[in-house]
Amino acid sequence: MPNSTQSPYLLLANIGQLLTLRGEAAPRRGRDLQDIGLVENAAVLCGGGKILAAGPQRELLRDPWLRTNRRKVRELDCQQRVVIPGLIDCHTHPVFAEPRLVDFEKRIGGADYEEIAAAGGGIRSSVAAVRRSSRGELSKKVLAALNAMLEQGTSVVEAKSGYGLTLEDEVKSLEAIRDAARQWPGEVVPTLLAAHVVPQEYAGKADDYVKKVCDEMIPQVAKKKLAKYVDVFCDRGAFTQEQSERILAAARKHGLGTRAHVCQFTAAKLAPLLEYQPASFDHMDCVQPEDVSLLARGETVAVLLPGTNYFLGHTGFPDARRLIDAGVPLALATDYNPGTSPTPSMPFVLSLACTHMKMTPAEAIAAATINAACALRLQQRKGSLEAGKDADMAVFDVKDYREIAYWFAWDRCVEMVVAGRVVGLGTLGER
Ligand SMILES: [Zn+2]
Predict the structure, then answer these.
(1) pLDDT tens-digit profile of 213-232?
(2) Which of 170, 160, 117 is nearest to 257 (CA)?
(3) In 34-166, which residue ranges form alpha helices assigned H by DSSP?
């Protein structure tokens, strides 16, 4: 008889509310975003890192295999709490060395994002600190951030470079992500964001920098298999539409996926960028009406980042209702970064989505699970709890799933299961 602590089988029992998010492995749109597949008095059986069954506990316990093999199965008593798929943070910038406290105080004093950048703060100050840091120092910071995310329910993280801005420092940043990811139980999706801002040494020569990104950085990173995606900051003060297209074209040429920061400060024309089949468009604060209907017909996910609006002290937030009601597939993420959103907390983002973007708790959770999986093109394996999918789950110490978005700045995640193993936080009873 194998020792149950080494068992490849795990049963999550006595779940008060299980949110399965079951259904088609495709982004939820419109009214379907509400459909969270709620099962009360549920259980989940995992084996070999995958979900074997998820549903009503009474049915699951009648399974003939489970009845004869129950003693081989490790069991986690969820004590009537809420279990959801591990949250998916599909937009983060974790490779930085220091918090940006000067920016923080300057902004309190009334300076805006662009004035801070012009004064030598902003992204460029993070660039100087990353260039001074070793790969080992950076990977420690990335791992600390990943662990903070895990503690709050996140099991998949998209992680961008973008504070190096030389071939050497972007490679170092992506290697730091890879090193941290190897020590973390969840899954990390690495993204090259060399086109974050034009570095100081290329001031007035942005096209030369774009050429370097396209001809040197993207090919090297693709060759070393250090990134799955290439991202570009297409906005005022960063890269033009035409430069952004060149960067996305180079990504496609080298077999990498694409995504873009767009419409944070100024509207971009999305149709030309859609030619490069981006997995996501991120921010989307000021998207044009004609682009809303275009997105409603496509597969590119709009990733909203309300933590940024909160931290910048903006009163306006992305118009989630307009996008959802038009049928645009929508996801949520933290945008974890030192300048505009220093939070690892997806539950806080869910709270912001409800209070400031008028999403329902069900919509917010779907946007942070199945739709976020679609934004990373991981929906075949991640984002819902169904037989055959990866057994990634977060247990929250609440009785009703709506409480996950209701309590804010209060971490209610008490246990994490990643690839069918209890990795976490160890507060629940185990047999
Ligand atoms: Zn970002």
Answers:
(1) 999 999 999 999 999 999 99
(2) 160
(3) 57-60, 64-69, 101-108, 113-118, 123-132, 135-151
- The reported pLDDT for the residue numbered 273 is 94
Q: Is 72 exposed, middle or buried (0-12, 13-18, 19+ CB in 10 A)?
A: middle
Residue 106 alpha carbon to ligand 1 centre in Å: 21
Ligand 1: centre distance to CA 283 (Å): 8
Residue 147 Cα to ligand 1 middle (Å): 20
Mean pLDDT of the chain: 94
d(CA 264, ligand 1 centre) in Å: 10
Break the chain into its structural domains and give their ranges: 9-86+384-430, 87-375
Report whether pLDDT(400) > 90.
Answer: yes
| pLDDT tens, position by position, 369-394 | 999 999 999 999 999 999 999 999 99
Cα(253) to centroid(ligand 1), Å: 24
Residue 249 near residue 215 (C-beta atoms within 8 A): no
196: CA distance to ligand 1 center in Å?
9
For residue 308, the CA-to-ligand 1 centroid distance in Å is 9
CA of 341 to the centre of ligand 1 (A): 9
Split at pLDDT 50, 70, 90, the class of 429 is low
pLDDT, one tens digit per residue, over 24-70 is 999 999 999 999 999 999 999 999 999 999 999 999 999 999 999 99
Inter-CA distances, 190 with 118, 211, 227, 305, Å: 29, 22, 5, 18
Q: Which residues keep their CB under 5 angstroms from ion ligand 1?
A: 335
Q: Give the tokens for residue 341.
A: 């959103």
**Cα of 51 from ligand 1 centre, angstroms:** 32
142 CA distance to ligand 1 middle (Å): 16
User: From CA 342, how far away is CA 340, in angstroms rounded?
Assistant: 7
Q: Does domain 87-375 have CATH number 3.30.460.80?
A: no
> What's the CATH number for 9-86+384-430?
2.30.40.10
pTM assigned to the model:
0.96
Cα of 282 vs centre of ligand 1, distance in Å, is 7
Question: In which band, very low, low, confident or very high, does the pLDDT at 3 lie, cut at 50, 70 and 90?
Answer: very low
pLDDT number for residue 6: 62
CA of 305 to the centre of ligand 1 (A): 8
Q: How many CB atoms lie within 10 A of CB 60?
A: 19
Phi, psi of 211 (to 5 degrees): -60, -40
| d(CA 429, ligand 1 centre) in Å | 38
